[in-house]
Each structure stands twice: as C-alpha cells, then as structure tokens.
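Incident log, support desk, overnight shift.

02:14 A customer reports that sequence design results differ from what the structure should imply. Their input is reproduced verbatim below. On-call engineer (initials T.W.) acknowledged and began investigating.
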C-alpha cells in the first residue's frame, strides 16, 4: 500500500489543510500527539512573532475515530489566526486591495521565478504558498506516520550541529537514551548535546537580530530501530537515499543533505567502510562503525540512520538589490516579519517528512 499526502493553503489565507491516504487502520492517536509536536515546531531561540500569534491547533476532519485510524483518508485543518489581518487581499472571492501587492521580488525566495512562471507582476500569490508556513501541515500529517513507526519501536532524535558557523560537540555513537537525556537537560531553546555552545549561539542570534540579519545552520535527525532492507537497489527511484534526499530538499531553505558522514568520507584517505559482525547470542548482524549513516546500496543496513542537512540564512532580512516588476526599475524589497534563525524548526520538519517517507516503506 502506498502512503501519499497533499497539502493546500496560503501563509495568510484562512487555513492550511492536508490529507494523507494509505495509513492502515488501528493506529492509536490522541489530541496531545498533535499538540506536543506542533509546539516543538514552534520552539527554538530566534523564532519570529508569527509563532506567538498562531496556536497551530490541528483539527481532525476525517480518518480518525475513537482515537484510532480507520484506514480511510485522514484530513486535517490548521486555521491561520493572522488571516484576520490580511483579509483585504487574501479573501477567496473579494477583489484584492492594492495594499497587499508585492511588486519587488525578494532575492533568495520563490518570488521572481514563480512570478515569471505564472505570468504575474504581484509576488504575493507566489510568496503565500512558497512560505515555510506550509510545513506546519506536513508536520501535522506526520503524526499518524510517527505513531505507526513508534508501534514498531522505531524512534528518532533531533540535534542542531551548528548555527552561523559555530559548531557544537556531537557524538552520534552514544546510545539514544543518553543523547536524549543530554538534549532535554539543555532546554527548549536549542536541541543540542553541548551545553557550552548555547551562549555562543544566543549571542550570534542576538547580534544578527540587532543587525536585521538572519542565520542558517546544520541540523541532524537520527532514526533508531529501522529494520535491514528498507528501500531497494533494483531501481534508482526506489533507493532510500534518493527518497529521503527528495523529502528533505522539499523543505524551504534546505540547500544540502548528507547521509552519515558524507563530506568527511569524501576527504578520507584510509579505509572507511563499516565492518560486519554477527552476534550469535542476539542473532543479529552488527557493525564496527557507522560511517555510512545506516544506508548502503539504497537500503537500510540495521544501523541508526544518520541524516544531516544544511539550511541557508532566511532571505527576508536581507537587503539585496532587486527590480520592480511593474516599472522594471532597480528597487529594494521591503523587510517583512521573519525568523532570525529557524534551524530548530527545520529539524522538526525534516524529521516529519522523513517519518512520512519511512512509513511508506513500512506500509
């Protein structure tokens, strides 16, 4: 059975909606599962004011009855509280007011390419859909997939590796329980094992905010308990590396993906393959290391899946030159509300889209 999903909605429209089809019946889900995850997506030091005004309450419209999936399509709704302030130019039927027009495309965003593709001189329509606000719905849609995999003892942990070039100390070889304990001890501002990097990151974000700038970073999601053989080597589109990379690169502002220690491996001059052993007591195969990050030949190999990704600085705070689409004269885009740093939110979103991809492989 194939699990597929779609989302719809604009950043400042009435609501975001989503539908996921192919989830098996009988998966236990409660309201708190949605609430806890949506709160995590809004957490992190350096987030913008939008998080403060959007409760991101998930409404279930179908597919879950009595706290269990029914096997039917699951449809979800997240209302946009800020729609009230944008009705004048985001109403489905009323003529949009000119105040909502965005005539100067923002470099680094979808504005220019989208406006040219769809023959527009108002970037508002493009920006509303290209916004990372859409990832709130993909995060919500991951709840059934997460719970399905949790029931099979598949779990995960998110980590921030670096912000603005300042790297934390990370040890992926530590047991899952110890990593989670260290992350929880360091609080909700940063998902990190390294308590000593927190003040450095805060200072960098504060400085960027004061300068009306933004910061990118590197994040990591590790999945535990995956069986050997998810994915396949037989066709390129069935390789799990390809599937996961596509899912991660679909998240706005993500510009690079690594499975395991890809960059480090490319620079090594000695043997870096992961030796194979067999534990006769536990009757399972183990490895001497995990440089491959849990994937070989397009398939899981039984080791933790280590997925790393790189996020660029968000473009809303930049002052790069642009062009007015109506006059075709040089111009600078207006600044608009934005996060200073959203790498923590990106970790949760990346984790979500990969859960959806893994659930499809397990279905």
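02:41 Re-run completed on a clean worker. Output:
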């Amino acid at each position: 059975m194939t699990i597929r999903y779609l989302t719809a909605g604009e950043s400042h429209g009435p609501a975001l909606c989503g539908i996921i089809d192919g989830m098996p019946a009988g998966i236990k889900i409660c309201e708190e599962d949605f609430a806890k995850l949506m709160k995590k997506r809004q957490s992190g030091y350096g987030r913008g004011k939008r998080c403060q005004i959007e409760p991101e309450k998930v409404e279930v419209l179908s597919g879950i009855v009595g706290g269990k999936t029914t096997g039917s399509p699951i449809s979800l709704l997240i209302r946009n509280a800020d729609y009230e302030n944008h009705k004048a130019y985001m109403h489905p039927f009323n003529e949009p007011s000119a105040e909502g027009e965005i005539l100067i495309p923002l470099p680094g965003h979808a504005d220019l390419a989208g406006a040219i593709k769809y023959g527009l001189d108002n970037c508002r329509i493009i920006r509303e859909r290209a916004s990372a606000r859409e990832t709130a719905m993909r995060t919500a849609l991951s709840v059934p997939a997460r719970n399905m995999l949790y029931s099979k003892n598949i779990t995960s942990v998110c980590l921030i590796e670096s912000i603005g070039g300042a790297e934390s100390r990370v040890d992926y070889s530590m047991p899952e329980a110890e990593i989670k304990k260290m992350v929880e001890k360091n609080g909700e501002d940063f998902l990190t094992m390294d308590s000593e990097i927190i003040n450095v990151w805060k200072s960098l974000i504060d400085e960027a905010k004061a300068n009306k700038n933004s910061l990118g970073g590197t994040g990591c999601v590790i999945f535990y308990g995956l069986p050997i053989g998810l994915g396949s080597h037989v066709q390129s589109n069935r390789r799990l590396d390809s599937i996961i990379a596509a899912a991660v690169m679909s998240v706005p502002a993500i510009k690079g993906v690594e499975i395991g220690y890809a960059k480090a491996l490319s620079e090594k001059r000695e043997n870096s393959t992961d030796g194979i052993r067999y534990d006769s007591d536990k009757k399972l195969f183990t490895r001497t290391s995990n440089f491959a990050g849990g994937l070989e030949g397009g398939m899981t190999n039984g080791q933790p899946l280590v997925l790393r990704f790189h996020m660029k600085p968000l473009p809303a705070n930049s002052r790069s030159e642009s062009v007015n689409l109506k006059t075709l004269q040089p111009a600078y885009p207006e600044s608009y509300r934005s996060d200073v740093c959203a790498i923590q939110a990106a970790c949760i979103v990346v984790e979500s889209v990969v859960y959806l991809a893994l659930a499809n492989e397990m279905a």
